[in-house]
Design brief:
Blueprint: H1 3-24, E1 45-46, H2 52-56, E2 61-62, E3 66-71, H3 77-91, E4 98-103, H4 104-110, H5 115-121, E5 128-133, H6 136-147, E6 154-158, H7 168-181, E7 184-188, E8 201-207, E9 222-230, E10 236-244, E11 249-251
Parallel strand pairs: 3-7, 3-8, 4-5, 4-6, 6-7
Antiparallel strand pairs: 1-2, 8-9, 9-10, 10-11
Helix pairs in contact: 1-6, 6-7
């Protein structure tokens, strides 16, 4: 059996075990039907900041949908990964694992996931199921398996660049799978350009300067965000927000309570004006 087939088989077994656990759990701990969407108290929307971003999204990020995240440059890939994980943590019901399916080239370019970094963002590494595959088609297949499992908290799908297999039809399948299972699917696109797709929202992420805390301790992770596409509304931003892992919410840094400071955050450039990504080798 090839490595990709063995990995996919192991993922299927892991998902089957999670589904079995979900079905046998006492009522109230996990939804009785793992295929039933777990709706939040905000009509199926995920609270992000209780402020401008939620307002721009019509009440929060749609749960059980496909959302796309792009880095503004190669140097922002880590920020885009952190933002994707923050969204996954905001979306995941308590006690449900997060599946992260990565193409190995993305790991080589952006670095391997680190347990301390995951914990710093608020994720217990034991709650993460990491799948790493070489072929982009295998990555998409594994992502499809995960997106259909309603017992998961969220799915991060990370192919590298612009694989031909990730066409509009494939993205539409991910969107339908997310809608059917109620699992929020985050399509992280390192090395890709903004292009038409089936995502509910599309985000452009830059790393932002973090404000140090007391005793010069490292500040909260900070992101400069632009909403490039919103299926049910206009684009939005830019916003500079920091992630609070304890509240699982984004908040404006205290420095930016001054509205004039927002003008210094550059809006998203037109795709044609962006510098090409540098590829290793």
């Amino acid at each position: 059996m090839s490595t990709a087939k063995a990995t996919l088989s192991a993922l299927r077994q892991r998902i089957a075990a999670i589904e079995t656990t979900a079905r046998s759990a006492p009522p109230g701990e996990i939804a009785q039907d793992v295929c039933t969407p777990v709706m939040s108290s905000r009509a199926g929307r995920i609270t992000l900041d209780r402020d401008e971003v939620d307002a721009a999204l019509g009440g929060g990020l749609a749960r059980g949908a496909l959302h796309e995240i792009l880095a503004a440059s190669g140097a922002d890939n880590i920020a885009a990964s952190g933002f994707s994980l923050a969204l996954a943590l905001a979306a995941a019901p308590a006690g449900r694992p997060i599946v992260w399916v990565r193409q190995d080239y993305a790991a080589r370019e952006g670095g391997e996931l680190h347990a301390d970094g995951l914990q710093a963002l608020g994720l217990d590494p034991a709650a993460l199921i990491l799948v790493q595959l070489r072929d982009p088609l295998a990555v998409l297949r594994a992502g499809g398996e995960a997106a259909r499992c309603g017992a998961l908290g969220a799915v991060i799908l990370e192919p590298w660049g612009e694989p031909k297999a990730l066409d509009l039809t494939t993205q539409r399948r991910f969107a339908l799978a997310a809608e059917a299972s109620g699992v929020t699917v985050l399509l992280l696109r390192p090395g890709a350009r903004p292009m038409p797709g089936a995502a509910e929202t599309r985000w452009l992420v830059r790393s932002g300067p973090a404000m140090p805390m007391a005793m010069n301790a490292p500040g909260h992770p900070t992101f400069d965000l632009t909403l490039l596409r919103h299926r049910h509304g206009p684009p939005g931003g830019p916003w500079r927000l920091e992630w609070n892992r304890d509240d699982k919410l984004f908040k404006r840094p205290a420095l930016l309570r001054d509205p004039a400071a927002l003008s210094r955050i550059e809006p998203a450039p037109h795709p044609a004006e962006r510098a090409p990504f540098r590829l290793a080798g």
